Amino acid sequence: MKPTAWLINTSRGPIVEEAALIEVLETRRIAGAAIDVFDAEPLPADHPFRKVDNVLMTPQIGYVTEELYRTFYGDAAASYRGVAQCQCPLNRVPLGAGRAPQPDVTHRGLTTMEVG
Predict the structure, then answer these.
(1) Per-domain residue ranges of the chain
(2) Residues 6 or more apart in contact with residue 72 via CB below 8 angstroms
(3) How many CB atoms lie within 10 A of CB 38?
């Protein structure tokens, strides 16, 4: 990576080798990192990420935007209204006995899981 590069990880902690990233941050071989996921969560108080000044850390909320919250809470409110009016909620998760969850319905890009 270029010395001006920023590494951004909002996917899964183990995708990035933390020890290697800490080394390049400490030696400034890259400009910095923005990290939303970690190998160990919650991140221990003495973790090296807490000691470098070129890392931006968020507690798994890097995806949060006003639009996303409006969608999540708007859909939840619509589901509550539907239930109050004896209608099926938008993102129903049917209950079943003893089966592993299987992908069911996609609504606005979010997959619900059906058990049964």
Answers:
(1) 6-57, 66-114
(2) none
(3) 20
